[in-house]
Amino acid sequence: MAEAAAVPPSAAMRSLGRGRRHRAADLAGRFANWHAARANRWERLGVEQGTLVLEWLEDAGTSTREVRAGEMLWLAPGRRWRIARCSDDAIFSLQVHADDSVIADAPQAGRAALLDEAAPAQPEDSAALASGIAALAAGERRLLRTRFDPAPTVRAALAASDGTLSWHPLAGDEGDHAALLVRTAGAVDLLDYLGRDHALIEAALVGALRGDAVRERWLRGLMQRHLAIEEEDIFPAFLAAGGSPETVAALRREHDLLRGHLANIADPASHRGLLLVLEAHDEKEEQLVYPDFLARIGARADAVTAAIIAKGSAR
To answer: Residue 272 class from Cβ within 10 Å (0-12 exposed, 13-18 middle, 19+ buried)?
Structure first.
């Protein structure tokens, strides 16, 4: 597993409270949903008895690993993982540590790799874009920059991809369009897609806090589109399916906080506030809201996911 180790990753690791022991019966709670430690937090997972099957998100889709009794893993900040299943006799512990060698006032630096390590693509026209998308292999991603609107070509490719192609528009200004294209080995579900969207927001935030004006513009575009997806698509459908109005009201208040901090991103207090709200907000959505939403809409999940992925840049 990338970004996991059997030994402490830093000599400056500090335990945050006492670790808790868990059994198979606890799996239906937080551990069955996607989870990621934030900022400078590492999680130490130890199996005392039985076996666990971990899943984690990679560019090519979902990977798995069996962790047996006596094994221990340190899970890095930003690594999205969950326990897919475990033996009936499983006993395991999870301990959160802070890496005091890393300043926790910015997203994990590794997040920036989502954008930094994506191969650039600058097709001259829609035909070249369609050809490039067709050649995109599982596990590959492209940082797309075009002078023309790529949305019609991308949507046609999405419709023909059996769910293995995703895109995350970054900017949609006239004559300057940007997006991240991702090909996975299997179909992407809504949890995977919105989880990657969260990670991309943090990746753009890393650049914005380094003074990169382009990454700041992408941060604004990503955030605007992501919040619009939730407010215009997910929240109304969630409420119509019997979801909690109180939960939606709380999320909308957090959206207002995010917009306020983003508007003042040059202020150190605002960029720290933005990070703190993002940490709690994303965790709540990925562990509680999105799984509840998908459970409520049932068989409509695939159609809803496809419609959300196909959305272009927010205007």
So the answer is: middle
